[in-house]
Design goal:
- This protein is α+β, with helices and mostly antiparallel strands and 397 residues long.
- It is 19% helix and 36% strand.
- It contains 6 helices and 25 strands.
- A 6-stranded antiparallel barrel has the order 19-20-21-24-23-22. The protein has a 6-stranded antiparallel β-sheet with strand order 14-15-16-13-12-25.
- The two termini are 22 Å apart.
Length: 397
Amino acid sequence: MKTRALASLAAAASLTLFIPAAGGAQAADNGAGATETDLSTVQKMTAEYLAKQYGLDGATAIKRVRSQEEHTKVAQKAQDELGGESAGSYIDQKRGVLVVHTTRAEATNKIKAADTEVKVVARSESTLQATKQSIAGLLSKRLLATRVDVARNVVVATVADKDVRRARESLAAMDGVIVEGTEAAPTTQEGSVYGGQEIQFNNGYVCSLGFNATKGSQNVFVTAGHCGRGYATFRRQGQPLGRTLAYDFPGRDMGYSSLGTGWKGEAGVDRWNGRGVAVRGSKEAPVGAAVCKSGRTTKWTCGTIEAKNVTVNYTRDRGGYDMVYGLTQTNTCTEGGDSGGSWISGDQAQGVTSGGSGYGPGGKMCGQKVGRKNVSYFQPINPILQKYGLKLKTYQG
């Protein structure tokens, strides 16, 4: 949303505004002062996506959305109780069931919960992760991304179409590996400056603000590490916004910046319709959960979480690669300029946009625009908060 500054302030308003503050604070010029706290609208939008994606009726789709919080709790409990016998879990949105995988039949008696199904599979989560690491060493620069496909209990290695045969030959002796080809290359998603929601840096590049937070008594915001590399100085609507205080990229894709005087960092996410979504915490949603993204280029888009702890080998514009670990993969549309933007499931912050696979001229379009599958990645939020000792701003109303 666009914002304006009152005469008493030198800078424009911050990325997302939800509650008009007393004493002449910055206000939104398009009604963004309203905050959604009951999630009715957010649930409806997420349900609309699930209904279209899985052929559900409206009431069933709403039920799927409302059940995600309980599924998240059960998934975490299952992970804790199964330990080394765990092979991950995911939400089957078509059936409305949380599927928990384990490697031992005896463990099926440990997990008892409504709408939960326990299956015995061949490979544990630790085995799959070890396989994923081995693939990165074997394929090196030919590897574009690797992920654990929980539903199929395999590791998926993604390479360029031209490298599929060689990759399959290299990995033929490995158990539980599938090689997929793609014509798109994953890239981080900065973009050139043009009108819209953005944070500007480095003489014309733009990213998106992720979440507002605090570092002790200091106001800060979180974004992608590749946006902040080189200790970038950020601007918003032509006014100084902040400066990168720490960043990690490659390896991880996380960073945070100071938030300058005259800016008020709100506990919410821009929904690009004049309203915002309140952030109440950062509980991690499971694989299969519906999730939505806010970014300056593709605005508000939704999808589902497909895999976690994904390794991606980003292609640089001028050649070379940057490998990043620990990302979450989704089927949501993201494009250049969305990097650093917010990911949220219900009212729980999930992460910041890292990158995605682009198609068309210059690889600038998400898959759905050319009749292909969307592939996007976000850096989970909790590792960012833990790494830098930050406290996420949450709505207390």
